Give the backbone structure.
Amino acid sequence: MGTYDLIVKNVRVVRPDNDTVLDADIGVKDGRVLEVAAGLEASESAEVFEGGGRIAFPGAVDAHQHWGIYNPLEIDTETESRAAAQGGVTTGLTYIRTGQYYLNRGGAYAEFFPEVRRLSDARAHVDYGFHVAPMQASHLGEVESLVLDHGVSSFKIFMFYGSHGLHGRSDDQSRFLMTPPGERYDYAHFEFVMRAIQRTREAHPALADQISLSLHCETAEIMAAYTKIVESEDGAKDLAAYHRSRPPHSEGLAITIASYLAHETELANINLLHLSSGKALDAAMRMQGAFPHIDFRREVTISHLLTDITQAGIGAKVNPPIRPREDVEALWEHVLEGNIDWVVSDHACCRDEMKFGEDREDVFLAKSGFGGTEYLLPGLVGEGRKRGQSLPDIAKLVSWNPARRYGLGQKGTIAPGFDADIALVDPDRSFVAHAEDSVSTQEYSALEGHEIGATVTDVFLRGRRILADGVVHGEPTGRFQHRPTPQVS
């Protein structure tokens, strides 16, 4: 037998863990990187792949997806993981909760999560894991079991569900969330979620660094009031109207409240999700200064970095909204200053017949969320390089940083001992985004017609090529990641 199972030759290897880009070959054995060096002997490998000078990024960790939100989970797991591979993604982390959408049921996670596993196992084309949202009081007692028994080390709070549903104003919170009679999903519940997570961290100090809480930061009361104003007085129904109905200061206020609750409960690992505006980032940075003992991580989405309310149509309705161009530029300023920890897709495949209302031009009748994981790595490489971002910094944003935070100890870089998850990128080959070119089942794209400045050509998952010349192929081989996974020593 040869030294290697696979050699990827003649590539520019991006190492976010040590800020290097090396002209080298990558030797793979048993699904792991064995060696990164120039001139590896082809005769020592069962398979040789010619990289042709392309950039070899560590496979992207798309840490914010929503498989199963609008389509059956077993279908989304297969089709949308294929779309992930198109975007250079080799690991997808999906948010899931009880209530309407997803499995459309309430109850204990002890029964719910095994069903999630049953519906998703052996169907994904990329490796995958789940974040879980404790929605009711009984879930607080399940946090420790979710970590230890089910491999879920990250949790979520949807702050805007207080008087909002998924798509807009809601007068029946308990029916939407399927919570027990008399319970409220409110600031008090958020506090108790934080305390439950912190108790688990304290009980298991060896795992504490990989256990975290993520928050969707928008303020329900502010949005409810502004939505009423926009719908009754404004009359507009486009993306700009939706932006006004969920104003940026709603994000800033929610971030402030969440940060103080983290301080009060001594929960140190806080992730602020899909920050969409200059005001949101201003609040996030102020809170970092106010509470330096809290390890905040800040996330933005590729769509919020690539489009604005003048470029996209109703299909780009999402929470928080796509914003004006000045907010896009503010996000990029923070990205380039190093204030953003990772970039994600927030992929939520919503097919045409579900996405749009009877009036297809009324944003308030449309469902929230859309796909986009297929643009994650090529979109960030293209736009980031144009703005002067280094290749290691891009790899930190899509691979290294989320892998470290979310307990993926064998993911995030191309180095000996790590999983051989590799995405080859041609940085000089752009393409125009068209929904018909995506393998997602979504028939439209929020980025339709946008030029994406780089192309992912080939992707390897643990040394097996799952994307060949831009085409996903083979049977699903993605593995569930029972987090935290062992760290590479």
Remarks:
- The first strand starts at residue 6 and ends at 15.
- The chain has a mean pLDDT of 96.
